[in-house]
Amino acid sequence: MFTGYGNCYRLDALELADEHVQNRQHWTYKTIQHFKETLADPDFPCLFGRKAVTARTCHIIFARAGQLAEDIAHGLTDYIRTIEPIPLKQRIGNPLLVFLETATDSTLRQQQALAWRVLGELHARDPQPWPQEVPQDPHDSQWSFCFAGMPLFINMSFPGHQAMRSRNLGRHIAFVINPRESFDEVASASTESGQRIRARIRERVRVYNDGVVPDALGFFGQDGNFEWQQYQLQEPGSLNPARCPFQARATPDTLIEN
Asked: In Å, what is the CA distance from 188 to each residue of 128, 194, 213?
């Protein structure tokens, strides 16, 4: 039995862990092997992700079925504690991959609904209050998901994606998580270099997805750009919510205002 659920491993350490190496038929081992093979493809769009896998500096959490939110909360707390001392420009080389043990016969719509539910359950386990400077309403252009006081960007990848190949990392749901500020530090809409990086990656997305480019991709903070729409991308058969499925829990202040 794999006992590493809820632990945050750096990839190089995970590859040396006896428990991981000796469980080559386990879903966790197969998932990591497939993930590394996927990002080894020179056409995979995310250049930062490919570099992190090559350098073995990405971090990994496995979450077991039935305890998805609990395992993610435990590992994410450790990840944030580890990443906080790292300078912003270096954090982009330390993304977090969260792999969820999920049924392999579910539809894309079901997978996406589960991902949003888990995100809500994760929020309910947040050990710290929501940062005051970050809006709690996902329909505010300044919103991003927060945990342990840190704003995050979450790329939700699903095995049910077919047209959106760049958001399919294998047989299980995956969350690719980066600290919001470090993501903007290297690819900001306010700098020419940031605009060039994003344009290059989006062109790579178009090629990798055989011409399919998501409409939702935008720049953080721009009017009309909502981060939650970039967490979960759409294609035929996907969940198509009119409003963000995530809702922040009420705080004493919001209860008084309401």
From this structure: 27, 5, 20
126-129-150 Cα angle (round to 5): 70
Residue 92 has pLDDT above 70, yes or no: yes
What is the spatial distance between Cα 237 and Cα 83, in angstroms, rounded to a whole number?
A: 36
Q: Which two tokens stand for residue 109?
A: 């719509």
3-state SS class at 156: strand
pLDDT at 189 over 70: no
The least confident of 4-8, 136-140, 219-223 is 219-223
Q: What is the DSSP letter of 250?
A: P
Q: What is the mean pLDDT of residues 55-75?
A: 97
The number of folded domains in the chain is: 1
Q: Which of 63, 56, 76, 69 is nearest to 8 (CA)?
A: 76
> What percent of the chain is predicted at pLDDT more than 90?
70
Positions of E strands within 76-139? 96-100
Give me the helices (H) in 187-223, please: 192-208
Q: In this structure, is residue 2 part of a structural domain?
A: no
Beta strands in the chain (DSSP E): 9-10, 59-63, 96-100, 145-147, 150-157, 174-179
Full domain range(s) for residue 69:
9-257
Give CA–CA dist 144/180, Å, rounded.
8
**3 state DSSP class of 152:** strand
